[in-house]
Amino acid sequence: MEKKTFKRTLVTTALPYANGPVHIGHLAGVYVPADIYVRYLRLKGEDVVFIGGSDEHGVPITIKAMKESVTPQDIVDRYHTIIKESMAGLGISFDIYGRTTSETHRKTASEFFRKLYDKGEFIEQTSQQFYDEQADQWLADRYIMGTCPHCGNERAYGDQCEQCGRDLSATDLINPHSTITGNAPLLRETKHWYMPLDKWEPRLREWILKGHKEWKPNVYGQCKSWLDGGLQPRAVTRDLNWGIPVPVEGADGKVLYVWFDAPIGYISNTIDLLPDTWEKYWKDPESRIIHFIGKDNIVFHCLIFPAMLMAEGSYQLPDNVPANEFLNLEGDKISTSRNWAVWLHEYLEDFPGKQDVLRYVLTANAPETKDNDFTWRDFQARNNNELVAILGNFVNRAMVLTHKYFEGVIPAAGEWTDYDRQTMAEFHDVKATLGQNIETFHFREALKDAMSLARIGNKYLADTEPWKLAKTDMERVKTIMNLSLQIAANLAIAFEPFLPFSTEKLRTMLGMSEVRWDKLGTTDILAAGHTIQQPVLLFEKIPDDVIDAQIARLERIKQENILNNFRPKAVAEPCTFDDFTKLDIRVGTVMECEKVKKADKLLKFRIDDGMGGRTIVSGIAKWYQPEELVGRQVCFIANFPPRTLKGIESQGMILSAEDADGRLVVIGPTGPVRPGVQVG
């Protein structure tokens, strides 16, 4: 089938919740790939509009406001500003970064809902929901906490248990209570409006499963799974005091559900940007719409929002939804609640002038088809071994040699050799692949293509050795340096979508007057006789101590989380002093210690107990090496009846305490004690 061409492109990015700053997971999943794509289209001279903004309604924002004893508006004003400024700091080149608390959005979302309501596209249903009598308000799922029925976590929320990851309904919880007052909530009936997604299921199935087989496998597969499972009506309103009021009589105290409200933000932000021409981007068949999102938003952007647009009737459906998977941090899932993240605004403060390093690493590690991992060591290695040693090295060598031999004036090229022609043929081959990879949303591969162009340049200089030829054949050196500088200019074009700050610096040094994609692969970008500036390094090595500091910060956060989450076990049933005295606890010295064969958890001790010695088997091998226990004094229960473990008779029990992180710590005296002394 022939690929359809479009006159213009509208690119949107998922609206981040304005209840906190953005982190590297958001950037790798959504914003950096979207910016690469938009910058590429701009280089090609295409008509493209880039829409972003904050999602400022929903329960997470009200919870944040309650914790800080401020209003939801205070929260969204603060974080909208932080997010907007940090995005700009990283070079995410939105044409507009709007917000869903704007008057334009309130009007647009209300009118959208009302049009569907007047067309009879909603159904009304009554259901039972939790209500807090003392707080006199309905409880959203995140305002309800209880015991998870699956894993026993006593702090599970009404929508999900963060310990075992299971999705929940508030009514699934054991002993639910309101997070506002701590009281047990009551179930009450309430009326809401629902979007009958099942009505649109046949059309969605036709549109996606037959019409968009080119979508990324993770997106297509998730859509197919939802469709095969059968779509159900979904509420579009909530009982909440923060949001856009439902524009229907008798709907007091109800607002538009955030998943209905937020995607309309793409439309309202476009209206704010282009009040007179916005419709041609949303309603003209010659326009294409592309949503960049994370995998947790696939159902909303591929099924629910399109169903809303189908019901409304005048909008175009998205042409593609290139969703990414999740990015982990140092092998662990990024968590805003646990502060386990690299926050963008903090990165920009800690690494001034290194925006492109983060953009490069996040693109190289982009979770395009599966979850991926960010580590600080990899961040350092990619900067030092790729940006510095390959890209930066070539540019610097080419410019330094030009200043050395020609005082910074670009020499005219003479006749090309076969090797010159072969080098530029390789360049042309990579250009075609590079563009194709960007257009099909394979940004990791596209970045490799761009870096391969720098590798070609390095190899060309290394093979031609102009510093040797300068002694015998300066005419040949002129050709080599002209071609090397043309390659450097090509790199300023190829890397522009990925590394905008560095390529701007490079273009300034080279004195490039224009940057167009169609010039990539050509050798007449820089005119002979033109003087280039003195070179400055595009990138610098990042030393170990800088990375060590970031790793140490994460380790502190991990330990804080362990301590914050540690809750002592409930005190056991009362016992008498007589019960306690039945235990004969003594001090012994570890004479020998070894691992028990075919038992990963067990250590075998030979204890000097002051009474001729005894053998004790203990399950602490996970936390101790045998040699570090030899010579230590430990407390043990001497009057436990012997029992056999892995064929070894154990004559007692070594006492240990469980630390906050689950580690078992052997208990012993703080100073030397004679073996066999009783504890009591």
Q: Can you tell me the residue ranges where pLDDT is under 50 for at least 5 consecutive residues?
A: none
Mean pLDDT: 93
Number of strands: 26
Q: Kindly estimate the percentage of residues that lie in beta strands according to DSSP.
A: 15-25%
Distance between the termini: 85 Å
CATH class term of the largest domain: Alpha Beta
CATH superfamily of the largest domain: HUPs
Specify Rg, calculated over alpha carbons.
32 Å
Q: What is the number of helical segments per DSSP (H or I, 4+ residues)? A: 20
Q: How many discrete domains?
A: 4
Shape, principal axes of CA atoms:
flat
- Specify the structural class: alpha+beta
Helix content: 40-55%
Q: Biggest sheet: strands, sense, closure?
A: 6 strands, antiparallel
CATH architectural name of the largest domain: 3-Layer(aba) Sandwich
Predict the CATH topology of the largest domain.
Answer: Rossmann fold
Short description:
With 680 residues, the chain is of the alpha+beta class. The chain is 42% helix and 17% strand.
How would you describe this structure to a colleague?
It is a single chain. The protein is α+β, with helices and mostly antiparallel strands and 680 residues long. The protein folds into 4 domains: 8-120 and 257-333, Rossmann fold (3-Layer(aba) Sandwich); 123-192, Methionyl-trna Synthetase, domain 2 (Beta Complex), CATH 2.170.220.10; 383-544, Isoleucyl-tRNA Synthetase, Domain 1 (Orthogonal Bundle); 577-679, Nucleic acid-binding proteins (OB fold (Dihydrolipoamide Acetyltransferase, E2P), Beta Barrel), CATH 2.40.50.140. The chain contains 20 helices and 26 strands. The strands form 8 sheets. Strands 17, 18, 19, 20, 23 and 26 form a 6-stranded antiparallel β-sheet that branches. The chain has a 4-stranded parallel β-sheet with strand order 3-2-1-13. Strands 5-4-9-10 form a 4-stranded antiparallel β-sheet, with no helix packed on it. Strand 24 (656-658) and strand 25 (664-666) form a beta hairpin. Helix 14 (443-464) packs antiparallel against helix 16 (474-494). The chain is flat. The N and C termini lie far apart (85 Å).
